[in-house]
């Protein structure tokens, strides 16, 4: 009923609701208070260079811990936030928090690390998307080359005008854009031709089928990698869980990867410790010289 009313974004509880729409109704109402109650936080997962093992960036992932219901996953509450018009506010919070975090890491003496922030379709297609992002970067004094925006291919579909506008705004501001969950939408090849992005993230479903005999995804991953290479885009594999998958990706010349194999998404403090360890000069030398690698 609330959906049918279009502009009216507040749902009214009624006795005909089933259990899952009741949960959604409750979650949407609670979400309105989540920011001020400080129930939201970001966790960070490193993106790793396949060849060198170096951390290239950090993907920020949103977490919501409700006092009674515990952790609610983004796959559940983000669509609800979109539906009820709360995504703009949530998205701003995410962008601001991630920007501050990157600046804090630098101030703590850690080499500058780029943060990747996920954007919903609404956020990305908003007419002032680029301007809003620029403003938040300025307020937090984060250099634009230290931000990357991730957007799924489904969000790009059928919105050519708005997508082009935002991409142009971001490009002129020096902010990188990547396509998330690549390969799961429909019009991949066609829009890659029209929308020049900086990197492609191969969806984890392809990565997880890399070593499977039944539905081996190798030819697809190979095709995506060579396409990305000829377009001079960085290609990233998501959801790498095994050594077998990683060595296959290395053989296929994939540039970067993320996944539980190396590191799951972790709290900011743990990520910082992880960075310090990975950026520290090797200590197993006794002559005091640093490893040039
Ligand atoms: P995504 O951007 O594709 O993020 C990758 C998801 O894969 C994350 O799930 C991450 O925890 C998970 N993951 C990482 N490594 C592995 C692995 O080795 N194996 C498996 N099976 N999974 C792995 P998460 O954190 O639950 O986020 C789910 C989705 O929710 C994200 O997918 C993204 O689309 C969305 N999301 C998360 N945070 C935000 C946000 O701040 N804003 C928006 N608009 N969307 C967000
Ligand atoms: Mg992502
Ligand atoms: Mg993804
Ligand atoms: Mg995903």
Descriptors:
binds ligand C2E; alpha/beta; single chain; 44% helix; disordered N terminus; 9 strands; 18% strand; binds magnesium ion; eight-stranded mixed beta barrel; 293 residues; EAL domain-containing protein; 12 helices; disordered C terminus
The molecules bound to the chains, other than polymers, are: ligand C2E, magnesium ion
Q: Compute the separation of the termini in Å.
A: 61 Å
Strand share of the residues? 15-25%
Provide the succession of SSEs: HEEEHHEHHEHHEHEHHEHEH
Number of strands: 9
Low-confidence stretches: 1-8, 285-293
Mean pLDDT: 89
Morphology call: globular
Which structural class fits the helix and strand makeup?
Answer: alpha/beta
Major beta sheet, specifics? 8 strands, mixed, barrel
- Helicity, in percent? 40-55%
What is the CA-atom radius of gyration, in angstroms? 20 Å
Count of individual helical segments: 12
Strand order of the largest sheet: 1-2-4-5-6-7-8-9
Protein name: EAL domain-containing protein
